[in-house]
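Contributing new records

If you add data, match the layout below exactly. Sequence lines come first and carry their own label; structure lines follow with theirs. Keep one chain per record. Anything else will be rejected by the validation script.
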Amino acid sequence: MCSIIPSYLLQRVVETSDRSPHPGERTLLLDEQLRESRSRRRTGKTGTKARTTSRTKSSTEPKSPDAQRTIDDAANSETLPGKAARKAGDPATEDPAVDEAWKSSAQIWDLYAEVFERQSVDGHGSGVTVTVHYGNDYDNAFWDGKQLVFGDGDGEVFERFTKPMDVMAHEFTHGVTQDTAGLSYDGQSGALNESVSDVFAAICTQRVKKQTAAKADWLIGKGIFVEGIKAKGLRSMKDPGSAYDDPRLGKDPQVGSMSDYVQTTDDNGGVHINSGIPNKAFQLAATKLGGHSWEQAGPIWYQALTGGEVTAHTDFAGFAKATVNAATKLYPDEPKIAATITAAWTEVGVLDKGGDKAGPPVRHRSRPVAIARGSEIAGRPGTETGESIKIVLDSAGPARPRARKHPGPAAGRGR
């Protein structure tokens, strides 16, 4: 299950809240259950992962996004997909989440169809199901392998997850990645999976706003936090690690260079933390190329993702080389474009100037981050700051919420 809010951030919100139980605890529990359920679906009888993705060619036959989308309403239940709330031909409703999901799903559909000639998630125009009002104050949005799901947020830290358009674009792209490269959701391949979703979310936002790469703010999830939270957004592609710094959230732990790479067992091997490195590479490439991100940089990343060179366990260097090769293939008479892509990956420490994997090996900073059951230590390894962070005492896997007996789902905030 690919979700936009990492477990470490939800843990922090739970730990700093006076609300007991906090909706974030139920969110963490549901996320873990959904993740385990999907893992079981992907595992064959022999215990090995069954193949669930196939590289598909896009259909160039145009199809209206309206006829291919359904917005369902879970009515604050945990049952998917819920009941149909809006489909083709229906007028706008009085439900903001339904109408936001309808509008933003059309915007990301149009990006893929009009710029990359890809019809829907699978490239063949299959229908897309979007469920809103999932759970009681559910603090996340996710792609579960089959559909897009959005919670309402707790109203204290998180807004409804349909509010920022790029959350829809991010989750939709997880479906595209599943159907093409099938990047495994752990370690560097998992960070690439997250980064690709951020990349196309940023492209979609900039296209809707008609912004150049130079003028864009490169924020992901802008508006996802309620007023009063000290945050620009959930992530910054331009300056990874600067998106938020708030007592409820802690400080954004994302990194933007291989010299700061975080080796951790949390967050599926740091998929939301280390994704800042390829995020920064794309932002640099798009800005250096100039113009709009969907004109050159976007097609290069899309070609790399769908061209067959990137597979389930591709690492940063492998993906970087795929983008350089894609630039050469798409723009054979303009070698400066491939050189610009190489330069972007070099700046974040993934490639050297010759286009090979950078060396010597980076010094991985081994630390899980900002998790509930930890003890505070002074300063981050490899930094000169005096800030304190928390480390996980149980390194066997993703941390779980504090042990509390759940009295059952609380009443939803309503819509």
